[in-house]
Fold this protein.
Amino acid sequence: RLVDTTRMHPYTGPFTVSLPATISAQAVDAHGAPLSAPRTRHVDTADARTRDNAALRPCNAGGVPLRVPMHADDADAEPRYNVELFDPCAVFVAAPLDGTAGITINAASLPWNFQLAHDAASRVQRSSPLAHGDIEVRLDHCDGPLLARIAL
């Protein structure tokens, strides 16, 4: 069954909508035959200001990126997390800070027993003043001004 493409607009790049909005997308071939089920997402102001782990950019562009499951013994399970093996720092590029009164971070304890051998010395180690470690939120880059420290 063909999809009525007369109301569809081909995605060619970023677009602007007024929030809240409901966005629907469906892949179709050149003849309008669906290639997938339609996907719909409701977006409001909170959604527009939220990034999940996959949307963060690793600070070390030349590192070793991995996508790991929450539990090492269940590789097919969700969720999965992007990690940078040698530098666990990531940046939320162009984070919209106007009107921001706080942040929420969902953190997971991931298995981290990678056999690095002679490469272990290349791993960036950041010390924490807190007994069980922390998450630092910094402005613009990894060495930017400290905005918040969240205890683990």
